[in-house]
Amino acid sequence: MKKQNEKSVDKEVKLVKIIGSYVSDHFGELWDKSLNDLIEEAVLGVVESVSENNDFDPKEIEAVYIANMASGIFNNQLHLNAIVSELLEHFPPSIRVEGACASGSLAMIAAQDSLNSGRYKTVMVLGVEKMTDFNSNEATKVLSSASDYSFEYGSTFPALYALLAKAHMHKYGTTREHLSAVSVKNHRHALSNSKAHFKKSFTLKQVSESSMVADPLRLLDCSPVSDGASAVILSTKNSGKLLDANKAGGDNKASSGEIDYKNKPKIIGFGHAQDYLSLAKRKSLTSLSATVKATRNAFKQANINLQACNSLRSTAGTRAEFTAKDIEVAEVHDCFTIAEILAIEDLGFFKKGTGAQATLDGKTTFGGDVVINPSGGLKACGHPVGATGVKQIAYLAELLEKGIKIEGDKLEKIKNFKYALAHNVGGSGATVVVHILEK
Amino acid sequence: MQLNPANYWRKNKNWSNFVGKSGEVIFATRIEITSPELQTFLPYCFAIVEMEGERYEFMGEKGVELKKGDEVEFVFRKVSESDNASLINYGIKLVLKK
Protein backbone atom coordinates (compact mmCIF):
# COMPACT_ATOMS: atom_id res chain seq x y z
CA MET A 1 0.00 0.00 0.00
CA LYS A 2 2.79 2.37 0.92
CA LYS A 3 4.56 1.69 -2.34
CA GLN A 4 1.38 2.46 -4.23
CA ASN A 5 1.05 5.79 -2.42
CA GLU A 6 4.63 6.72 -3.13
CA LYS A 7 4.15 5.87 -6.78
CA SER A 8 1.02 7.99 -6.90
CA VAL A 9 2.84 10.93 -5.30
CA ASP A 10 5.67 10.62 -7.80
CA LYS A 11 3.17 10.79 -10.59
CA GLU A 12 1.40 13.82 -9.16
CA VAL A 13 4.51 15.93 -8.64
CA LYS A 14 5.62 15.79 -12.24
CA LEU A 15 4.67 19.42 -12.55
CA VAL A 16 4.35 21.16 -15.88
CA LYS A 17 6.49 24.29 -16.10
CA ILE A 18 5.80 27.23 -18.35
CA ILE A 19 9.25 27.88 -19.79
CA GLY A 20 8.25 30.32 -22.50
CA SER A 21 5.36 32.66 -23.21
CA TYR A 22 4.21 35.08 -25.89
CA VAL A 23 1.24 37.38 -26.42
CA SER A 24 0.76 39.30 -29.69
CA ASP A 25 2.33 42.78 -29.73
CA HIS A 26 -1.17 43.86 -28.90
CA PHE A 27 -4.68 42.51 -29.37
CA GLY A 28 -7.07 44.48 -31.53
CA GLU A 29 -8.02 45.14 -35.11
CA LEU A 30 -4.77 44.06 -36.73
CA TRP A 31 -5.82 44.82 -40.31
CA ASP A 32 -2.30 44.36 -41.70
CA LYS A 33 -1.89 40.84 -40.29
CA SER A 34 -3.40 37.65 -41.64
CA LEU A 35 -4.24 34.51 -39.70
CA ASN A 36 -0.98 32.97 -40.90
CA ASP A 37 0.98 36.07 -39.89
CA LEU A 38 -0.41 35.85 -36.37
CA ILE A 39 0.48 32.17 -36.09
CA GLU A 40 4.00 32.75 -37.39
CA GLU A 41 4.58 35.67 -35.01
CA ALA A 42 3.44 33.58 -32.07
CA VAL A 43 5.71 30.65 -32.97
CA LEU A 44 8.74 32.90 -33.42
CA GLY A 45 7.84 34.96 -30.36
CA VAL A 46 7.45 32.08 -27.95
CA VAL A 47 10.61 30.34 -29.16
CA GLU A 48 12.51 33.62 -28.75
CA SER A 49 11.10 34.03 -25.24
CA VAL A 50 12.95 30.86 -24.24
CA SER A 51 16.03 31.22 -26.38
CA GLU A 52 16.86 34.86 -25.62
CA ASN A 53 18.50 33.94 -22.32
CA ASN A 54 19.01 30.21 -22.78
CA ASP A 55 20.44 27.80 -25.27
CA PHE A 56 17.25 26.45 -26.77
CA ASP A 57 16.72 24.58 -29.99
CA PRO A 58 13.14 24.60 -31.35
CA LYS A 59 13.64 20.93 -32.23
CA GLU A 60 13.09 20.23 -28.58
CA ILE A 61 9.40 21.02 -29.12
CA GLU A 62 7.97 17.55 -29.57
CA ALA A 63 4.37 18.52 -30.40
CA VAL A 64 2.22 21.58 -30.99
CA TYR A 65 -1.37 22.08 -29.82
CA ILE A 66 -3.14 24.88 -31.67
CA ALA A 67 -6.39 26.40 -30.41
CA ASN A 68 -8.83 28.16 -32.70
CA MET A 69 -12.59 28.48 -32.85
CA ALA A 70 -13.65 29.52 -36.31
CA SER A 71 -10.88 30.04 -38.86
CA GLY A 72 -12.92 27.95 -41.28
CA ILE A 73 -15.59 30.69 -41.31
CA PHE A 74 -13.60 33.83 -40.50
CA ASN A 75 -10.68 33.07 -42.79
CA ASN A 76 -11.80 30.14 -44.97
CA GLN A 77 -8.79 28.28 -43.61
CA LEU A 78 -8.79 24.97 -41.81
CA HIS A 79 -6.02 22.45 -41.16
CA LEU A 80 -4.23 24.85 -38.81
CA ASN A 81 -2.23 22.03 -37.24
CA ALA A 82 -0.35 21.65 -40.53
CA ILE A 83 0.16 25.40 -40.86
CA VAL A 84 1.75 25.69 -37.42
CA SER A 85 3.83 22.52 -37.74
CA GLU A 86 5.52 23.59 -40.97
CA LEU A 87 6.81 26.70 -39.25
CA LEU A 88 9.15 24.49 -37.27
CA GLU A 89 11.99 22.91 -39.18
CA HIS A 90 11.37 19.42 -37.79
CA PHE A 91 7.57 19.31 -38.48
CA PRO A 92 6.48 18.21 -34.99
CA PRO A 93 3.14 16.40 -34.62
CA SER A 94 0.36 18.95 -34.24
CA ILE A 95 -3.30 18.88 -33.22
CA ARG A 96 -5.98 21.56 -33.48
CA VAL A 97 -8.38 21.94 -30.56
CA GLU A 98 -11.78 23.71 -30.67
CA GLY A 99 -14.09 24.44 -27.75
CA ALA A 100 -15.49 27.90 -28.57
CA CYS A 101 -14.01 30.56 -26.25
CA ALA A 102 -12.40 27.81 -24.16
CA SER A 103 -10.37 26.48 -27.10
CA GLY A 104 -7.14 27.84 -25.64
CA SER A 105 -7.44 26.24 -22.23
CA LEU A 106 -8.63 22.96 -23.75
CA ALA A 107 -5.50 22.93 -25.90
CA MET A 108 -3.54 23.54 -22.70
CA ILE A 109 -5.15 20.51 -21.10
CA ALA A 110 -4.51 18.32 -24.13
CA ALA A 111 -0.87 19.40 -24.02
CA GLN A 112 -0.61 18.83 -20.26
CA ASP A 113 -2.09 15.35 -20.62
CA SER A 114 0.52 14.49 -23.22
CA LEU A 115 3.24 15.70 -20.84
CA ASN A 116 1.83 14.05 -17.73
CA SER A 117 1.46 10.74 -19.56
CA GLY A 118 5.16 10.85 -20.38
CA ARG A 119 4.58 10.85 -24.11
CA TYR A 120 6.34 14.19 -24.52
CA LYS A 121 8.59 16.30 -22.32
CA THR A 122 8.31 19.64 -24.08
CA VAL A 123 5.41 20.96 -26.16
CA MET A 124 4.05 24.22 -27.53
CA VAL A 125 0.48 25.48 -27.11
CA LEU A 126 -0.64 28.26 -29.43
CA GLY A 127 -4.00 30.03 -29.61
CA VAL A 128 -5.08 32.27 -32.46
CA GLU A 129 -8.13 34.01 -33.89
CA LYS A 130 -8.36 36.46 -36.80
CA MET A 131 -11.85 37.95 -36.48
CA THR A 132 -11.94 41.52 -37.71
CA ASP A 133 -12.10 40.83 -41.44
CA PHE A 134 -15.80 40.30 -40.65
CA ASN A 135 -17.95 43.19 -39.49
CA SER A 136 -19.37 42.99 -35.99
CA ASN A 137 -22.80 41.74 -37.08
CA GLU A 138 -21.25 38.92 -39.11
CA ALA A 139 -18.91 38.11 -36.23
CA THR A 140 -21.94 37.98 -33.93
CA LYS A 141 -23.42 35.32 -36.21
CA VAL A 142 -20.23 33.26 -36.22
CA LEU A 143 -19.90 33.43 -32.45
CA SER A 144 -23.53 32.42 -31.97
CA SER A 145 -22.61 29.04 -33.45
CA ALA A 146 -21.10 28.27 -30.04
CA SER A 147 -24.62 28.23 -28.58
CA ASP A 148 -27.11 25.40 -29.11
CA TYR A 149 -27.85 26.21 -32.75
CA SER A 150 -31.18 24.42 -33.00
CA PHE A 151 -32.43 25.07 -29.47
CA GLU A 152 -31.40 28.73 -29.09
CA TYR A 153 -32.03 30.18 -32.57
CA GLY A 154 -32.48 33.92 -32.57
CA SER A 155 -30.13 34.31 -29.62
CA THR A 156 -26.82 36.13 -29.55
CA PHE A 157 -24.05 35.71 -26.99
CA PRO A 158 -24.83 39.04 -25.35
CA ALA A 159 -28.47 37.89 -25.11
CA LEU A 160 -27.55 34.64 -23.34
CA TYR A 161 -25.40 36.48 -20.81
CA ALA A 162 -28.13 39.12 -20.49
CA LEU A 163 -30.44 36.34 -19.30
CA LEU A 164 -27.84 35.32 -16.73
CA ALA A 165 -27.56 38.95 -15.66
CA LYS A 166 -31.33 39.22 -15.28
CA ALA A 167 -31.33 36.11 -13.09
CA HIS A 168 -28.49 37.48 -10.92
CA MET A 169 -30.22 40.85 -10.59
CA HIS A 170 -33.49 39.17 -9.65
CA LYS A 171 -31.98 36.89 -7.01
CA TYR A 172 -29.24 39.05 -5.53
CA GLY A 173 -30.25 42.61 -6.34
CA THR A 174 -27.30 43.19 -8.63
CA THR A 175 -27.59 46.61 -10.25
CA ARG A 176 -26.57 48.49 -13.35
CA GLU A 177 -23.84 50.20 -11.32
CA HIS A 178 -22.40 46.84 -10.26
CA LEU A 179 -22.06 45.71 -13.88
CA SER A 180 -20.45 49.01 -14.83
CA ALA A 181 -17.92 48.69 -12.01
CA VAL A 182 -16.46 45.57 -13.66
CA SER A 183 -15.97 47.39 -16.94
CA VAL A 184 -14.48 50.50 -15.33
CA LYS A 185 -12.01 48.42 -13.30
CA ASN A 186 -10.87 46.26 -16.24
CA HIS A 187 -10.42 49.24 -18.54
CA ARG A 188 -8.37 50.91 -15.80
CA HIS A 189 -6.19 47.80 -15.48
CA ALA A 190 -5.64 47.72 -19.25
CA LEU A 191 -4.07 51.17 -19.16
CA SER A 192 -0.86 49.59 -17.88
CA ASN A 193 -0.92 46.69 -20.34
CA SER A 194 0.84 47.62 -23.56
CA LYS A 195 -0.77 44.67 -25.34
CA ALA A 196 -4.37 45.59 -24.54
CA HIS A 197 -6.92 46.15 -27.30
CA PHE A 198 -8.35 49.20 -25.53
CA LYS A 199 -6.29 51.64 -23.50
CA LYS A 200 -8.99 54.03 -22.49
CA SER A 201 -10.63 54.58 -19.14
CA PHE A 202 -14.37 54.97 -18.65
CA THR A 203 -16.58 56.21 -15.84
CA LEU A 204 -19.49 54.31 -14.33
CA LYS A 205 -21.81 56.79 -16.02
CA GLN A 206 -20.25 56.26 -19.45
CA VAL A 207 -20.62 52.49 -19.19
CA SER A 208 -24.17 52.77 -17.89
CA GLU A 209 -25.16 55.08 -20.74
CA SER A 210 -23.44 53.24 -23.60
CA SER A 211 -25.73 51.85 -26.29
CA MET A 212 -27.91 48.88 -25.46
CA VAL A 213 -26.98 45.50 -26.97
CA ALA A 214 -29.22 43.06 -25.10
CA ASP A 215 -30.98 44.42 -22.02
CA PRO A 216 -29.37 44.91 -19.46
CA LEU A 217 -26.02 44.51 -21.24
CA ARG A 218 -24.69 47.56 -23.02
CA LEU A 219 -21.83 48.04 -25.43
CA LEU A 220 -19.29 48.70 -22.67
CA ASP A 221 -20.39 45.53 -20.85
CA CYS A 222 -19.20 43.44 -23.81
CA SER A 223 -15.73 42.23 -24.72
CA PRO A 224 -14.61 43.27 -28.20
CA VAL A 225 -14.03 41.35 -31.41
CA SER A 226 -10.23 41.14 -31.57
CA ASP A 227 -7.40 39.65 -33.56
CA GLY A 228 -4.51 38.10 -31.72
CA ALA A 229 -2.37 35.11 -30.90
CA SER A 230 -0.60 33.80 -27.86
CA ALA A 231 1.63 30.84 -27.10
CA VAL A 232 3.42 29.04 -24.32
CA ILE A 233 6.07 26.34 -24.20
CA LEU A 234 5.46 23.74 -21.52
CA SER A 235 7.93 21.21 -20.16
CA THR A 236 8.10 18.54 -17.49
CA LYS A 237 11.86 18.51 -17.42
CA ASN A 238 13.41 19.36 -14.08
CA SER A 239 16.98 20.17 -14.96
CA GLY A 240 19.56 20.43 -17.66
CA LYS A 241 19.51 22.20 -20.96
CA LEU A 242 16.51 21.56 -23.07
CA LEU A 243 18.24 20.11 -26.07
CA ASP A 244 18.63 16.35 -26.18
CA ALA A 245 21.35 15.51 -28.69
CA ASN A 246 19.93 12.11 -29.56
CA LYS A 247 16.45 13.42 -30.29
CA ALA A 248 17.67 16.41 -32.24
CA GLY A 249 19.71 14.27 -34.59
CA GLY A 250 23.03 14.88 -32.86
CA ASP A 251 23.69 18.14 -34.65
CA ASN A 252 23.43 20.40 -31.64
CA LYS A 253 26.38 22.01 -30.00
CA ALA A 254 27.12 21.87 -26.33
CA SER A 255 25.68 24.82 -24.45
CA SER A 256 26.12 26.60 -21.19
CA GLY A 257 22.79 28.46 -20.99
CA GLU A 258 20.69 26.04 -19.04
CA ILE A 259 17.08 26.84 -18.31
CA ASP A 260 16.36 27.58 -14.68
CA TYR A 261 13.42 25.20 -14.37
CA LYS A 262 13.06 25.63 -10.63
CA ASN A 263 12.17 29.28 -11.03
CA LYS A 264 9.76 28.85 -13.90
CA PRO A 265 6.04 29.19 -13.17
CA LYS A 266 4.40 25.82 -12.64
CA ILE A 267 0.90 24.52 -13.22
CA ILE A 268 0.02 22.99 -9.86
CA GLY A 269 -3.61 22.25 -10.58
CA PHE A 270 -6.23 22.31 -13.28
CA GLY A 271 -9.86 21.36 -13.60
CA HIS A 272 -12.16 20.93 -16.57
CA ALA A 273 -15.93 20.57 -16.38
CA GLN A 274 -18.95 20.68 -18.65
CA ASP A 275 -22.62 21.62 -18.40
CA TYR A 276 -25.60 21.81 -20.75
CA LEU A 277 -25.02 24.00 -23.79
CA SER A 278 -28.53 25.43 -23.50
CA LEU A 279 -29.34 27.80 -20.63
CA ALA A 280 -32.87 26.41 -20.37
CA LYS A 281 -31.56 23.00 -19.38
CA ARG A 282 -29.29 24.31 -16.59
CA LYS A 283 -30.12 23.80 -12.92
CA SER A 284 -29.08 27.34 -12.05
CA LEU A 285 -28.92 30.63 -13.94
CA THR A 286 -27.08 32.46 -11.16
CA SER A 287 -24.05 30.18 -11.12
CA LEU A 288 -22.04 28.35 -13.76
CA SER A 289 -21.87 24.85 -12.30
CA ALA A 290 -19.03 23.95 -14.65
CA THR A 291 -16.93 26.68 -13.04
CA VAL A 292 -17.73 25.35 -9.58
CA LYS A 293 -16.77 21.79 -10.57
CA ALA A 294 -13.63 22.77 -12.48
CA THR A 295 -12.51 24.93 -9.54
CA ARG A 296 -13.06 22.11 -7.07
CA ASN A 297 -10.97 19.76 -9.21
CA ALA A 298 -8.23 22.32 -9.74
CA PHE A 299 -7.83 23.00 -6.01
CA LYS A 300 -7.99 19.29 -5.22
CA GLN A 301 -5.10 18.65 -7.57
CA ALA A 302 -3.21 21.69 -6.33
CA ASN A 303 -3.48 20.44 -2.75
CA ILE A 304 -2.17 17.01 -3.72
CA ASN A 305 0.74 18.55 -5.58
CA LEU A 306 1.61 21.11 -2.92
CA GLN A 307 1.52 18.56 -0.14
CA ALA A 308 3.58 16.12 -2.17
CA CYS A 309 6.13 18.81 -3.01
CA ASN A 310 6.33 19.97 0.59
CA SER A 311 6.89 16.44 1.83
CA LEU A 312 9.65 16.04 -0.69
CA ARG A 313 11.26 19.36 0.11
CA SER A 314 11.29 19.17 3.88
CA THR A 315 10.08 17.20 6.82
CA ALA A 316 8.35 20.21 8.34
CA GLY A 317 4.96 18.67 7.67
CA THR A 318 2.25 19.50 5.20
CA ARG A 319 0.61 22.88 4.88
CA ALA A 320 -2.98 23.73 5.61
CA GLU A 321 -5.50 23.32 2.85
CA PHE A 322 -4.83 25.47 -0.19
CA THR A 323 -7.97 27.43 -1.15
CA ALA A 324 -9.15 30.39 -3.19
CA LYS A 325 -8.03 32.61 -0.31
CA ASP A 326 -4.42 31.78 -1.27
CA ILE A 327 -4.88 33.10 -4.79
CA GLU A 328 -3.62 36.65 -5.12
CA VAL A 329 -4.31 37.31 -8.78
CA ALA A 330 -6.59 35.83 -11.42
CA GLU A 331 -7.44 36.21 -15.06
CA VAL A 332 -11.12 35.30 -15.31
CA HIS A 333 -13.42 35.00 -18.30
CA ASP A 334 -15.15 38.40 -18.42
CA CYS A 335 -16.62 38.16 -21.92
CA PHE A 336 -19.41 40.25 -20.40
CA THR A 337 -19.39 42.15 -17.12
CA ILE A 338 -21.88 39.75 -15.54
CA ALA A 339 -19.53 36.88 -16.44
CA GLU A 340 -16.84 38.28 -14.15
CA ILE A 341 -19.31 38.62 -11.28
CA LEU A 342 -20.44 35.03 -11.76
CA ALA A 343 -16.81 33.90 -12.00
CA ILE A 344 -15.48 35.52 -8.85
CA GLU A 345 -18.35 33.98 -6.90
CA ASP A 346 -18.17 30.52 -8.48
CA LEU A 347 -14.38 30.42 -8.11
CA GLY A 348 -14.78 30.95 -4.37
CA PHE A 349 -13.24 34.42 -4.08
CA PHE A 350 -16.51 35.86 -2.79
CA LYS A 351 -19.69 34.36 -1.39
CA LYS A 352 -22.58 33.90 -3.79
CA GLY A 353 -24.40 37.18 -4.27
CA THR A 354 -21.58 39.37 -2.94
CA GLY A 355 -19.25 39.54 -5.95
CA ALA A 356 -20.94 42.53 -7.53
CA GLN A 357 -20.71 44.69 -4.41
CA ALA A 358 -17.13 43.50 -3.80
CA THR A 359 -16.22 44.77 -7.26
CA LEU A 360 -17.87 48.13 -6.65
CA ASP A 361 -16.06 48.33 -3.30
CA GLY A 362 -12.65 47.89 -4.94
CA LYS A 363 -11.95 44.43 -3.57
CA THR A 364 -11.01 43.03 -7.00
CA THR A 365 -8.25 45.47 -7.86
CA PHE A 366 -4.78 46.29 -6.50
CA GLY A 367 -4.99 46.78 -2.77
CA GLY A 368 -8.14 44.66 -2.53
CA ASP A 369 -8.72 41.02 -1.62
CA VAL A 370 -7.66 39.56 -4.99
CA VAL A 371 -6.59 41.25 -8.22
CA ILE A 372 -9.02 40.20 -10.94
CA ASN A 373 -8.00 40.65 -14.57
CA PRO A 374 -4.88 42.81 -14.21
CA SER A 375 -4.40 42.51 -17.98
CA GLY A 376 -7.75 44.21 -18.53
CA GLY A 377 -9.36 40.83 -19.10
CA LEU A 378 -11.33 39.96 -22.20
CA LYS A 379 -13.24 43.20 -21.71
CA ALA A 380 -10.35 45.59 -22.28
CA CYS A 381 -7.30 43.50 -23.22
CA GLY A 382 -9.37 41.87 -25.94
CA HIS A 383 -10.90 38.54 -26.86
CA PRO A 384 -9.43 36.83 -29.91
CA VAL A 385 -11.48 33.77 -29.08
CA GLY A 386 -9.05 30.90 -29.74
CA ALA A 387 -6.15 32.82 -28.23
CA THR A 388 -7.79 33.87 -24.97
CA GLY A 389 -7.24 30.73 -22.87
CA VAL A 390 -3.57 30.59 -23.84
CA LYS A 391 -3.14 34.34 -23.35
CA GLN A 392 -4.42 34.05 -19.77
CA ILE A 393 -1.72 31.47 -18.98
CA ALA A 394 1.01 33.35 -20.88
CA TYR A 395 0.13 36.64 -19.19
CA LEU A 396 0.01 35.11 -15.71
CA ALA A 397 3.29 33.24 -16.26
CA GLU A 398 4.98 36.53 -17.12
CA LEU A 399 3.30 38.19 -14.15
CA LEU A 400 4.56 35.51 -11.76
CA GLU A 401 8.08 35.75 -13.17
CA LYS A 402 8.42 39.52 -13.40
CA GLY A 403 5.67 41.01 -11.25
CA ILE A 404 3.70 44.05 -12.34
CA LYS A 405 4.42 47.76 -12.02
CA ILE A 406 1.84 49.57 -9.95
CA GLU A 407 1.63 53.15 -8.80
CA GLY A 408 2.37 53.49 -5.10
CA ASP A 409 1.86 56.54 -2.93
CA LYS A 410 4.78 58.32 -4.52
CA LEU A 411 6.70 55.96 -6.77
CA GLU A 412 6.01 53.09 -9.09
CA LYS A 413 6.74 49.79 -7.42
CA ILE A 414 6.75 46.15 -8.49
CA LYS A 415 4.00 43.95 -7.09
CA ASN A 416 4.93 40.27 -7.01
CA PHE A 417 2.63 37.29 -6.74
CA LYS A 418 3.08 33.68 -5.62
CA TYR A 419 -0.15 32.02 -6.82
CA ALA A 420 -2.37 32.83 -9.78
CA LEU A 421 -5.52 31.41 -11.31
CA ALA A 422 -6.84 31.34 -14.88
CA HIS A 423 -10.50 30.76 -15.68
CA ASN A 424 -11.61 30.20 -19.27
CA VAL A 425 -15.22 29.63 -20.35
CA GLY A 426 -16.63 28.20 -23.55
CA GLY A 427 -19.94 29.63 -24.76
CA SER A 428 -22.34 30.64 -22.04
CA GLY A 429 -20.74 28.25 -19.55
CA ALA A 430 -21.00 24.77 -21.04
CA THR A 431 -17.21 24.35 -20.96
CA VAL A 432 -14.97 25.66 -18.20
CA VAL A 433 -11.28 25.19 -17.50
CA VAL A 434 -9.47 26.45 -14.41
CA HIS A 435 -5.69 26.50 -14.04
CA ILE A 436 -3.73 27.28 -10.87
CA LEU A 437 -0.16 28.50 -11.26
CA GLU A 438 2.65 28.83 -8.76
CA LYS A 439 5.72 31.01 -9.04
CA MET B 1 -30.08 29.18 -38.88
CA GLN B 2 -30.82 28.41 -42.51
CA LEU B 3 -33.75 26.09 -43.11
CA ASN B 4 -32.41 23.79 -45.78
CA PRO B 5 -34.52 20.75 -46.79
CA ALA B 6 -32.73 18.42 -44.40
CA ASN B 7 -33.29 20.81 -41.49
CA TYR B 8 -36.92 21.18 -42.46
CA TRP B 9 -37.58 17.43 -42.33
CA ARG B 10 -35.81 17.13 -38.99
CA LYS B 11 -37.50 20.09 -37.33
CA ASN B 12 -41.08 20.07 -38.60
CA LYS B 13 -41.96 17.05 -36.45
CA ASN B 14 -41.58 19.13 -33.28
CA TRP B 15 -43.50 22.25 -34.26
CA SER B 16 -46.88 20.77 -33.41
CA ASN B 17 -45.69 20.22 -29.83
CA PHE B 18 -45.67 23.99 -29.35
CA VAL B 19 -48.04 25.80 -31.69
CA GLY B 20 -51.11 27.08 -29.87
CA LYS B 21 -49.81 26.17 -26.42
CA SER B 22 -48.83 28.66 -23.76
CA GLY B 23 -46.04 29.04 -21.25
CA GLU B 24 -44.54 31.46 -18.73
CA VAL B 25 -41.52 33.69 -19.21
CA ILE B 26 -38.78 32.87 -16.71
CA PHE B 27 -36.38 35.59 -17.90
CA ALA B 28 -36.31 37.69 -21.06
CA THR B 29 -33.93 40.11 -22.72
CA ARG B 30 -34.58 42.67 -25.45
CA ILE B 31 -32.07 42.27 -28.28
CA GLU B 32 -31.04 45.41 -30.14
CA ILE B 33 -27.98 44.14 -32.03
CA THR B 34 -28.01 40.83 -33.86
CA SER B 35 -26.72 38.90 -36.85
CA PRO B 36 -27.51 40.03 -40.42
CA GLU B 37 -30.31 37.56 -41.18
CA LEU B 38 -32.21 38.68 -38.05
CA GLN B 39 -31.85 42.45 -38.56
CA THR B 40 -35.36 42.91 -39.93
CA PHE B 41 -36.87 41.62 -36.68
CA LEU B 42 -35.11 44.14 -34.42
CA PRO B 43 -35.87 44.88 -31.70
CA TYR B 44 -37.03 41.50 -30.50
CA CYS B 45 -36.99 39.67 -27.19
CA PHE B 46 -35.35 36.37 -26.42
CA ALA B 47 -36.66 34.40 -23.47
CA ILE B 48 -36.42 31.31 -21.38
CA VAL B 49 -39.96 30.01 -21.04
CA GLU B 50 -41.48 27.19 -19.07
CA MET B 51 -44.20 24.98 -20.51
CA GLU B 52 -45.58 21.89 -18.80
CA GLY B 53 -42.60 21.73 -16.43
CA GLU B 54 -39.95 21.96 -19.16
CA ARG B 55 -37.86 24.99 -20.06
CA TYR B 56 -37.18 26.20 -23.61
CA GLU B 57 -35.59 29.21 -25.30
CA PHE B 58 -37.35 31.15 -28.04
CA MET B 59 -37.29 34.54 -29.69
CA GLY B 60 -40.30 36.80 -29.44
CA GLU B 61 -42.18 38.25 -32.36
CA LYS B 62 -40.84 41.63 -33.51
CA GLY B 63 -41.73 44.43 -31.11
CA VAL B 64 -43.33 42.17 -28.50
CA GLU B 65 -42.02 43.17 -25.08
CA LEU B 66 -41.57 40.20 -22.77
CA LYS B 67 -40.76 40.20 -19.08
CA LYS B 68 -40.52 37.72 -16.23
CA GLY B 69 -43.89 36.23 -15.37
CA ASP B 70 -45.60 37.04 -18.69
CA GLU B 71 -47.90 34.38 -20.10
CA VAL B 72 -46.97 33.73 -23.71
CA GLU B 73 -48.30 31.73 -26.61
CA PHE B 74 -46.17 29.74 -29.04
CA VAL B 75 -46.78 30.74 -32.65
CA PHE B 76 -45.41 29.69 -36.03
CA ARG B 77 -43.56 32.57 -37.70
CA LYS B 78 -40.67 33.44 -39.99
CA VAL B 79 -37.52 33.29 -37.81
CA SER B 80 -34.89 34.63 -40.19
CA GLU B 81 -34.54 36.17 -43.61
CA SER B 82 -33.50 33.88 -46.44
CA ASP B 83 -32.79 34.47 -50.11
CA ASN B 84 -35.34 33.78 -52.82
CA ALA B 85 -33.81 30.43 -53.71
CA SER B 86 -34.01 29.01 -50.16
CA LEU B 87 -36.89 27.65 -48.12
CA ILE B 88 -38.65 30.30 -46.08
CA ASN B 89 -37.23 30.03 -42.61
CA TYR B 90 -40.05 29.25 -40.18
CA GLY B 91 -40.01 28.24 -36.56
CA ILE B 92 -41.56 28.83 -33.16
CA LYS B 93 -41.79 32.34 -31.73
CA LEU B 94 -43.44 33.90 -28.70
CA VAL B 95 -46.28 36.41 -28.48
CA LEU B 96 -48.09 37.68 -25.38
CA LYS B 97 -51.17 35.59 -24.64
CA LYS B 98 -54.34 37.62 -25.16
Task: Write a structural description.
- The complex is a heterodimer of chains A (439) and B (98).
- By secondary structure, chain A is an alpha/beta fold.
- Chain A has a single domain (12-135, 222-438), classed as 3-Layer(aba) Sandwich (Peroxisomal Thiolase, Chain A, domain 1), CATH 3.40.47.
- Helices cover 36% and strands 17% of the residues of chain A.
- Chain A contains 14 helices and 14 strands.
- Chain A has helices at residues 2-12, 35-51, 71-74, 80-85, 103-116, 136-144, 157-172, 176-190, 204-208, 289-313, 337-346, 355-360, 377-380, 385-402, and strands at 16-23, 63-67, 94-97, 122-129, 212-214, 217-218, 228-235, 266-274, 329-331, 371-372, 404-407, 412-415, 419-426, 431-438.
- In chain A, the strands form three sheets. Chain A has a ten-stranded mixed beta sheet with strand order 3-2-4-7-1-8-14-13-9-10. A two-stranded antiparallel ribbon of chain A has the order 5-6.
- In chain A, strand 11 (404-407) and strand 12 (412-415) form a beta hairpin.
- In chain A, helix 5 crosses helix 14 and helix 8 packs across helix 11.
- The longest helix of chain A has 25 residues, at 289-313.
- Chain B is mainly β.
- Chain B has one domain: OB fold (Dihydrolipoamide Acetyltransferase, E2P), CATH 2.40.50.
- Chain B has one helix at residues 5-15, and strands at residues 22-31, 44-51, 54-59, 71-80, 89-96.
- In chain B, strands 3-2-1-4-5 form a five-stranded antiparallel beta sheet, with no helix packed on it.
- In chain B, a hairpin with an 8-residue loop joins strand 4 and strand 5.
- Chain B is globular, with a radius of gyration of 13 Å.
- The interface between A and B is medium-sized, with 33 and 30 residues.
